[in-house]
C-alpha cells in the first residue's frame, strides 16, 4: 500500500520536475515572467488526449505533437507580448492562462468542458503497453531525465549564455548584434515544448483531465517550486519539486478532513513562498536575486 | 568616408534633439563629437545604432544605407559601441561577456547544440586574454561583472566593443566618472587602438580632453553641427566658445 503511494508521489515529482525546469528556463534563465506556464501544461495534456483518444494517433506521435503544438502556442504568446516587460508581461501571460482555461471550459465539442475527459489510456508504444504504475514511473523517469538533460545542455551552451544576457540587459545584447526577440522566442518555445510533454505525461497517468487541473492555483505551485529551488538553477528546481510535492503530503497523516486538506496545501505553498522571498530571495540553490 | 550621416533629425515634441545633423567620419582616424550637455551627442549615437528611430535623414556605413535596419543588424554590419552608463550582464563572467561578443553564430540553437555535444566548442581564451591585456583589465576571467568596480566595468564595456567584429567603434563618454589615473590609461588605450588601424568616434563634453587626442572634431549645439575641423581650429572658434561659455 505504502509502496503504491510512494510510486504515485515519485511519478508526480518526475512530471512536475520537467514542468518546473521548463518554467525556470523561461523565467530564470531568460527573464521572461511567464505566468501562463500552466496553460502550456494544459494544452499539452488536452492535445495528447484528443489525438490519442479521438483521432486514434499512436501515443508517441501524440506525445510529440503535444510538445510541438504547445511550442507553437509559446511562439504566439511571445509574439503577442513582445513589447511588454516585467509586471506588464506577467499580467499579459496570466491573461493568456485564463484564455486557455476558458477555452478548455467552454469548447465543449472538443474538450467536453467541465465534464472533462475520462478513460484516458495508459501509453502503448512499439507494441508494449504500460500495465502498472511502477512501469509508468520508470517511463516518466526516463522521459524526465532526457528532458532535463536537454534543458541542462541548452542553458550551459553558448546559446544559454545569450539567454542569460537577454535577461540581464536586453539593449546591451542587441548592441552586440544579437536578435533578442528571436532568442526569447526560442526560449519560450523550448519551455512550452517541455511543459506540453509534461502535460501529456500527466494526462496519461491520471487518466482523467478537466480544466480544474490547469487553474491559477497550479501556477502558484510551479512558481513556488522554481522560486524555492532558486532562479536559473536546474538542481534547485529538482530538489524543490521533491520538497514541495512531498511536504504537503504529510498533512494526510494528521487526520484532517478532506475539505480542509486542499486549502491547507495552498496555505503551505503560500507560506513557503513568503518565507523564501523574505529570507532567502535567491532560493535554495539560486545565484540570481529575485527582482 | 566610412560613415556618412546626412540630415539626421529627431524631434521630441517641440525639442530638436537632432536638427539636420550632418557629418562624415574618416577611416582610421579618431573623430570626436563634443558639445555642451543636452546638445544631442548621445542622441546621435542612439540614432546611428537605431536605439531611437529618427524622423528623417540617412546613415550610410561603408556605402550601405543602414538607416532602416534593425539595431542588431546595424551592430552586425560593423558598428560597435559603448554606453555612457555601461550595459553589462551582471550575472555573467568577464570571459562569458567576451565570448558573447566574439561569437557570431551562437543564436543558431541546433548548430550550438551539435557543437556542444559532438564537437568541442571553439576556445577563445587566447583572444580574450589579448583583448583584456589591450584594455588593461587585470582580473580573473571568472569574475562576475557585478563584482567589478565602476572603472573596471568601463574597461570591460570597452573590451566587449573591441571584441565584437566591427569596422567602426563608437565610444560614448569613455572617461566619464573615472579617476584621473584611469582617464590617462583610457586615453592611451584609444591611441593604441588608432595605431592598430581602428576607426574611432568618441563623444565627450570636455573640450580639453579631445584636443590632444582627436584628429577631427565636430561640435554639436541643439542637435546641429555648428563647427568642425582640426582641434586647433575648433579651440579658437568663436561660435564654439559661445556655445560652451554661453556667451
Number of strands of chain B: 10
The count of DSSP E runs of length 2 or more, i.e. the number of strands of chain A, is: 2
Q: What is Rg of chain A?
A: 19 Å
Q: What string gives the helices and strands of chain A in order?
A: HHHHHEEHHHHHHH
What about the largest sheet of chain A?
2 strands, antiparallel
Largest sheet of chain B: 6 strands, mixed
What is the helical fraction of chain A, as a range of percent? over 70%
Question: Which regions of chain A are unreliable across 5 or more consecutive residues at pLDDT < 50?
Answer: none
Written as H for each helix and E for each strand, in order along the chain, the element string of chain B is: EEEHEEHEHHHHEHEHEEHH
Number of helices of chain A: 12
The count of helical stretches of chain B stands at 10
Can you give the mean pLDDT of chain B? 91
> Pairing-aware structural class of the strands and helices of chain A?
mainly alpha
| Span of the ends, CA to CA of chain A | 44 Å
Q: Write out the strand line-up for the largest beta sheet of chain A, numbering strands in chain order.
A: 1-2
Q: How would you classify the quaternary structure?
A: heterodimer
Report the sheet-strand fraction of chain B: 15-25%
Domain count of chain A: 1
> Rough shape of chain B?
globular
User: How confident is the prediction overall: mean pLDDT of chain A?
Assistant: 92
Span between N and C termini of chain B? Answer: 34 Å
